[in-house]
Amino acid sequence: MSVLHEDAARAGIIRIWRDVNGKAQTVSDASLLAILEALGPEQADAEPRLLTAWAGEDVVLPGSPGPYRLELETGTVSEGFAPLARGGVAIPGIALPGYHKLIFGGVEISLAIAPRKAYGLADVGRGEKLWGLTVQLYGLKRLHDGGIGDFAALRDFAVRAAGLGADAVGISPVHALFAADLQRFEPYSPSNRAALNVLHIARTLADVDAKLINWPSAAAAKMAELRAEFETFQDWPALAAFRAQAGLGLERHALFEALSVHLAAQGKSMLDWRNWPKVYSHPENPEVADFAKAYQREVSFHAWLQWLAGQGLQTANAAMRAAGAKIGIIADLAVGTDHAGSHCWSRQDEVLHGLEIGAPPDLLNREGQSWGITAFSPRGLKRSGYSAFLDMLRHCMRHAGGVRIDHVMGLSRLWVIPLGKSSAEGAYLTMPQTDLIRLVNLESHRHKAVILGEDLGTLPEGYGELLTDAGIAGLRVMWFEHDGKSFKPPSIWTKEAVAMTTTHDVPTVAGWWEGKDIEWREKLNLAGDTPMHRAQDRKDLWAAFTASGATQAPQPPDDDGAAVSFPAAVHLGRAASMLALLPVEDALSLVEAPNLPGTSTEHPNWRRRLPGNVEQIFQREDFQARLQALSAARRLP
Predict the structure, then answer these.
(1) In 3-state terms, what secondary structure has residue 103?
(2) Which end of the chain lies in a sparser environment, N or C, as judged by fewer CB atoms within 10 Å?
(3) CA 278: distance to chain centroid?
(4) CA–CA dist 450, 122 (Å, integer)
(5) Given this model, what pLDDT does residue 485 score?
(6) CB atoms within 10 A of CB 93
(7) Are 608 and 212 in contact (CB under 8 A)?
(8) pLDDT tens string 557-568
(9) For residues 365 and 406, what is the distance between their CA atoms, to the nearest angstrom?
(10) Looking at the 3D structure of the chain, how many domains does it have?
(11) Which residues touch 394 (CB under 8 Å, ≥6 apart)?
(12) What are phi and psi for residue 582, nearest 5 degrees?
């Protein structure tokens, strides 16, 4: 093995990997070198700041045999002697999950002791098959919302759904975007995953009657209204208490927003903190502290916005739970953040620089994907005691009954691509999988939040079983429950998973049936299904509906997508999976999908609004009929 290959292996770069067809692929030396240069030199190992272990399992740590002192988070203290073990010394297993303190060799170490399984669907449902809806939050409507779906509309939607028997409402990501750049609205390319999108704060604004959101215009009106309201704000003690409880992460985000707005006046290049004057390039620079003092009201404004947003999401979740839902709101955790955002500025030692993440060629995208975002650095996370990861998890679970982890394979490995290169020039970078899953499980139990993992794409070998063993529910999407010959009957879909008809990245049921996605791809010269292939798939899907008892009609409808949406809901309801989530687009039989991967401005991604406000939607007879059919199917043995 060459020195380059040894260095790559030590850095966690996987040189030989298997593609979606099981064929071995080898990363070029040029790519290995570029990725290694982006990762930077390896630092000497320091004492670990946080160690993880399963409850009841010995805690192995580096060092020589010696005495230790263990302080549990409950206050119980014990002492003992750590003997030799493979790889170091061992502390006897700790049965109590939680964060405990170990003093060994004169060093204080945090211990995260995790339950083997996350707080899961079995804990919530206790044998009952649950169902719910998913919705793109921005697409919800209410009177006088100013053109963007907000937390008040979500509360109304969630309560009405619970009234019909829904136990969950999954939403699109509500991570913080960019206060200084209102042109940015992609929910999966956020500025910070440990802060909220303040554009979802509910305020009374002029009605905007449009099928598509004009994000810059609507966002400017919302921010202007909020700034005017803040001018009369008086409850400073309550805001101070919120800021003290929220901690350093909130303060740095608010400071970033204030700096961004201030510096943006100098030109568009200042919208990226990497172009800021050097004195503002790091949150701990003294000049940044000087700015915070000089512009403390502006910083307070952005902290106040986070306070309001948190109250809005908390209210929606609490209202749904009060209405009888067993889970409540399921938040969506994006896989990464924008290089130019506040997370990268405030957590510079814990994120990847010079690399973006994406996916190798797979069944969804044969050319591979470069997502234009970055993610946590495995080295940085370990050095910091997983501080940023824990901050993000706790923020996402604080006001939700569940979390969907986008691209859950990122807990194991990330496809990293040198900036400016194609996806084919990337490689897998190994993540500290065991530590990350243990922390997810621990925080899941502490927040009583179920964990869903978006596991579509190229999975590491055995990863699906690993997720199931950890209590993380994968996704079983109707389009992909196909064995190459026919659609799989829902009765054999994975029990410990979440069943769905579709996702935001693939066609709706009606759109697929009518070939709307084929029309878009032909129009934009994108690879995809052919009409001939789709015709056969339609026959196969109808045969699956007939076999599952979702329909008794012997012949499928010609091009009527609405006529297919009802049996699709019944088919979904009969899935063996413990939770079934019906996207609102399929409950309404809409033909257009929220997003078309591989496009930006060519397709109106993340801009579509629902046809009617929440009250009007729940009054629609076809909407009610599909939900009632889904609910009835979930009650069948």
Answers:
(1) strand
(2) C
(3) 32
(4) 9
(5) 85
(6) 13
(7) yes
(8) 999 999 999 999
(9) 17
(10) 1
(11) 443, 447
(12) -100, 115
Report yes or no: 566 and 625 within 8 Å, Cβ to Cβ. yes
Would you state the pLDDT for residue 361?
78
Is residue 43 pLDDT above 80, yes or no? no
Residue 234 within any structural domain of the chain: no
Which amino acid makes up residue 509? V
List, in sequence order, the alpha helices (H) in 215-332.
215-230, 236-246, 248-263, 286-294, 296-322
**Interval 297-314: pLDDT, tens:** 999 999 999 999 999 999
The first and second tokens of residue 297, run together, are 């009201």
Give residue for tokens 């993380």: 472
- What is the Cα–Cα distance from 256 to 278, expressed in whole angstroms? 14
The size of the chain, in residues, is 637
For 19: left if phi > 0, alpha if psi spans -120 to 50, otherwise beta; the answer is: beta
Cα 11–chain centre separation: 26
Beta partners for residue 369, in sequence order: 359
| 78 is a domain residue | yes
Written as six digits, the tokens of 306 are 């986070």
- Tokens 């200084």 appear where? 180
Determine, yes or no, domain membership for 543: no
Cα 262 from chain centroid (whole Å) = 30
The Cα 85–Cα 328 span in angstroms is: 44
> Would you state the structure tokens that stand for residue 614, as one six-digit string?
């929440």
44 pLDDT band, cuts 50/70/90, is low
Q: Compute the CA torsion angle 135, 166, 566, 173 (nearest 10 deg).
A: 10
In this prediction the pTM is 0.97
* β-bridge partners, 100: 111
SS3 of residue 158 by DSSP: helix
> Strand 59-61 vs strand 175-176: parallel, antiparallel, or unpaired?
unpaired
CA distance 579 to 568: 16
* 437, two tokens: 């899953």
Instruction: Provide the token pair at 99.
Output: 């964060």
Q: Is residue 573 part of a domain?
A: no
Confidence bin at 362 (pLDDT 50/70/90): confident
Amino acid at 534: R
- Cα separation, 399 vs 559, in Å, equals 42
Looking at residue 46, what is its pLDDT? 62
Let me know: does 564 contact 557? Beta carbons within 8 Å.
Answer: yes
> Residue 97 belongs to what domain range?
56-114
CA 125, CA 114: separation in Å to the nearest integer?
Answer: 22
Q: 376, 350 in Cβ contact below 8 A?
A: yes
Is the pLDDT at 213 greater than 70? The verdict is yes
